[in-house]
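Notes from hallway chat w/ T.B., transcribed later so I don't forget. T.B. wanted the structure written out for a chain they're using in a teaching module, and asked if we could keep both sequence and structure tokens in one place. Agreed to drop them here.
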Amino acid sequence: MLSEERQNKIVELVNENKSMTIQMLMKMLDASESTVRRDLSDLDSKGLIEKVYGGAIAKNVTFSGKDESVNLRKEQNKEEKVIIARYAASLIEDEDFIYLDAGTTTELMIPFITAKKAVFVTNGFSHARKLSEAGFLTYILGGEIKFPTEAVVGEEAILTLFKYHFTKGFWGTNGISMSSGFSTPDVKEAMVKQMSMDRTRKRYILSDASKFSKISCVTFAEFSDATVITSELGKDSEAYRTYSNVVEVKK
């Protein structure tokens, strides 16, 4: 394949999928790593794609560098979040030992949970209160309180997670990208997410369609590490429909 033809194909693939890893491009183009890296650098300098660590993203992919307040996020895409939360709650069974990550969509799951014998661990202090009020046996991680997301984070929370083995877990995210995985702005919160996911058998990311093709500061898991439960995907993110780990919940 000629250089110009290969680079045109790279631009086409990146724009179609919003992001591509170097390994994906090597396989699809039957090209060496050094060739793909050189092409990405060339295309980035021309402004046709944006080169990132491990691959490339389309020019319209956005970055998120900070957390918005819980009160603000609770009102964003609320109808879609409720649909996602209801479906996620239906996956919980009486025998489950559940990790419930802090977040507005995970919090919306609580009124829909019918498996009364399920046991919960959470780093969300509002989640812990609501779960306890609903009659669930609930444990909360100890550690530093992060007020904007109402989450418990830090070294103590991570150390506590070492003793647990969860059957299922549900997490929020600030960004979803095929090349950069699931990401969040805060290092401490990312570490708690990563550790809790490592201790969980079945992992679910809850996200409305607005989070797709967005990248935040810190990756806490690869795209293939969890099943994504999302609302109806729009035109900008419909490429994700082809992935078996994306569950699209419609109204």
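Follow-up for T.B.: The longest helix spans residues 3-17. Might be a good example for the class.
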